[in-house]
UniProtKB/TrEMBL annotation:
This is FAD-dependent oxidoreductase. PANTHER family: L-ASPARTATE OXIDASE, SLL0471 PROTEIN.
Length: 531
């Protein structure tokens, strides 16, 4: 097969890239290995992690189209109360982590709607479920990628002038010989205040296998997981208790805190103020990432809230899942941990009334679209990252370093983002690293490999460090990166120029900046303070 642009990986960055290139008139092939497009928003089942100003500014126009589409889908198809239907900034789950918490299947429907005109016209071909297994190169160019079907012995070879790596782990980088880094860089390499003295390439953020729960009458206890005894007794040195407990380090202070858990509280959805500046929202785990608040819907529509479990105790940091021979074993153990957390919640979790266990907790695999009850895919926080023309470092955006000056403003900015530098416990034994951030820009140089000419990152694999990946890995930024990668491929095809030349030539850079601005990409922030 052949197209103008090949996008490998159908997560948020991949969908945004394919949409941008197709809207520009290019023929596009988009691949995805799981059953749903959307990556962390859908198959990984993680509600949006967004900044405090997301309803006003700080995202691309097409990302706003996605968010608006999700709300409109609820208004058109769900039995909302009149009060919730009239809620301009409708938060279907009334979760505290984000101003828009929702069921993943709704995002799948909206993403498919956005892509449908281009699939119908034949401009976009989606290959699903396929993953890359090999690549051909000629010098500094990728000439083809081989894709393997997930479930049967079938392979497809694809050629394209531009190849975008939107996979969750940067899978094309080793397949194409593209130079990349993993894990923790050293302070000598980056100058970052939070970096270690020695580089630690296998020290990566925890992965998590999320799942959805409701709480209804009856006993819905799952079979005791084979590895339950191990996880029930597992006590990391820095945790302050067993991993399976209500106690864990506070990400920002590292103080050991105890979180509450109240299934189906009778709270008012419109009373939830999901603002990360004021409250990280994780005090009550049930409402933290709730994706369906029953009081948003007419009486009887939902017998229970639905909450999404992406909580501290499901973080798996026993070993990395990138560039190690036993990656599949670690991923299976991450799933075993999630089942063990569920079993602990159902049988042994302390209740406020002095009892133990919540047998009414019911695993909602129908909500996550997976026959085993968990999310279809693990939540991968940290990818392989290209060795880029420019690497974003901690001192570019740290609030402690930059202060009132704000984040570094890049002459080649191609987008904006905002999130604290939020690193979960890692495979090297590190506790949380959570650093205040300034609203930041995305430099084009972070999307351009030092050597390869027609391979572009379109997700979490851009030129960040282990530390700054903590800010650049979230939903709106991944979408922005993918969208600009798709627009850059189109721009280069139209002018016969390379991405490197676009960045290095003032005239071309100005033209490209005008092009993405016209497409609704915000490249600068207004004057606001970080948190």
């Amino acid at each position: 097969m052949r197209a103008d642009v090949l996008v490998v990986g159908g997560g948020l960055g991949g969908v945004a890239a394919a949409l941008a290139a197709a809207r520009a008139g290019r023929s596009v092939i988009l691949t995805e290995e799981f059953d749903w497009l959307g990556g962390q928003l859908t198959s990984q089942a993680v509600p949006p992690d967004e900044h405090s100003w997301i309803e006003q500014f700080g995202a691309t126009a097409s990302y706003r189209e996605l968010r608006d589409g999700i709300r409109d889908y609820y208004r058109r198809h769900y039995p909302l109360t009149e009060r919730s239907r009239a809620w301009t900034d409708l938060n279907p789950g009334a979760g505290w982590v984000s101003r828009l918490c929702h069921e993943p299947r709704v995002a799948v429907a909206v993403l498919e709607q956005m892509l449908a005109p281009y699939r119908g016209s034949g401009r976009l071909t989606v290959l699903q479920p396929y993953r890359p297994v090999a690549a051909e190169t000629d010098g500094d160019r990728v000439t083809g990628v081989t894709l393997a079907h997930r479930d049967r012995d079938e392979r497809i070879e694809v050629e394209a002038p531009y190849v975008l790596d939107a996979t969750e782990t940067g899978e094309l980088l080793p397949l194409t010989g593209t130079e990349y880094v993993t894990g923790f860089e050293s302070q000598a390499q980056t100058g970052e205040p939070s970096a270690p003295a020695q580089a630690q390439p296998l020290n990566m953020q925890a992965v998590s296998v999320c799942f959805a729960l409701d709480h209804v009458d009856g006993d819905h206890t799952i079979d005791r997981p084979a590895g339950y005894d191990f996880w029930r007794d597992y006590k990391p040195d820095f945790w302050g208790d067993r991993l399976l407990s209500w106690r864990s380090p506070h990400p920002r202070t590292l103080e050991i805190v105890e979180r509450s858990f109240t299934p189906n509280p009778d709270d008012d959805p419109l009373g939830v103020n999901a603002d990360q500046r004021l409250n990280p929202g994780d005090g009550n785990l049930w409402t933290f990432r709730r994706i369906a608040a029953r009081r948003n819907f007419v009486d009887g529509a939902y017998g229970s809230d639905i909450t999404l479990v992406n909580w501290p105790m499901i973080d798996y940091f026993e070993g990395p899942v990138i560039d190690v021979p036993n990656a599949s074993w670690h991923l299976s153990q991450a799933r075993e941990l999630s089942y063990s957390v569920l079993y602990w919640l159902q049988t042994e979790a302390p209740r406020p009334d002095g009892g133990t266990g919540y047998p009414g907790l019911r695993l909602r695999g129908d909500v996550t679209g997976s026959p085993d009850g968990l999310a279809q895919a693990p939540y991968i926080r940290e990818s392989r990252r290209i060795r880029a023309e420019y690497t974003v470092v901690e001192q570019d955006l740290s609030l402690a370093v930059r202060g009132e000056h704000g984040a570094v403003s890049y002459p080649d900015s191609i987008g904006v983002g905002m999130y604290r530098i939020d690193l979960h416990p890692s495979t090297g034994g590190d506790n949380y690293i959570d650093v205040g951030s300034c609203p930041f820009e995305i430099p084009l140089g972070a999307l351009i490999p030092q050597r390869m000419e027609n391979l572009l990152p379109a997700g979490k694999n851009i030129g960040t460090t282990h530390i700054t990946n903590g800010s650049y890995r979230l939903h709106p930024v991944e979408w922005n990166v993918g969208e600009v990668a798709g627009l850059l491929a189109d721009f280069c095809l139209a002018r016969g120029e390379s991405p490197r030349a676009v960045r290095g030539t003032p005239r071309l850079l100005a033209e490209f900046t005008d092009r993405i601005s016209a497409a609704g990409v915000e490249c600068r922030w207004p004057q606001i303070a970080g948190y």
